[in-house]
Write a structure and sequence with these properties.
167 residues; alpha/beta; eight-stranded mixed β-sheet; 22% helix; 4 helices; TIM Barrel; 8 strands
């Protein structure tokens, strides 16, 4: 199997964004989300068939071209083909880039699920939880509502609050 020919459903790739993690980042907005959070800032991403089918090779090409760290957003990237998303994440790490993952799932819902085990090994930071309008706060970093957490792996490989960004 040629991993570079495997595809993922991409709505848009933003280069040099500063809203999806620290510094300038390449943010990949993947199609599909079943969370359907009321007042979602990106409801057009809910459609699993939105955007276009892009090969891992084409996505990597864009990442290499722009030299920024990477954010997986959407929709919810975890509604993609997880094997292909894991292949992409491994390739991104081979380029010595960090990966932030935005998901409407909580870490408690996914951390012990075999389906996500290999992918989570490749993720550096997770912003977890659904957007909740009653907890909306425009003054917090990299999140839309206060129930969402920014998590990083500690030395033991366990997920913990990334204190610097959860103030």
């Amino acid at each position: 199997m040629n991993i570079y020919s495997q595809t993922l459903r991409v709505i848009k790739i933003f280069h040099g964004t500063t809203v999806d993690g620290p510094g300038l980042r390449t943010s990949i907005y993947f199609a599909g989300c079943e969370h359907r959070c009321p007042h979602c800032h990106n409801p057009e991403s809910w459609d699993m068939n939105a955007g276009e089918s892009m090969s891992i090779a084409n996505i990597i090409e864009e990442i290499v071209e722009n030299k920024f760290n990477v954010t997986f957003s959407g929709g919810d990237p975890l509604y993609q083909n997880i094997e292909n998303l894991t292949l992409l994440a491994k390739e991104i790490h081979r380029l010595n880039k960090t990966i932030w993952l935005y998901t409407g799932f909580t870490i408690e819902e996914i951390k012990d699920d075999e389906k996500y085990k290999d992918l989570l090994k490749e993720i550096d930071v997770i912003v977890d939880g659904p957007f909740m309008i009653d907890k909306k706060n425009i003054d917090i970093l990299f999140r839309g509502s206060t129930n969402q957490r920014i998590l990083k792996k500690n030395k033991e490989g366990l997920w913990e609050l990334y204190e610097e960004y959860n103030k």
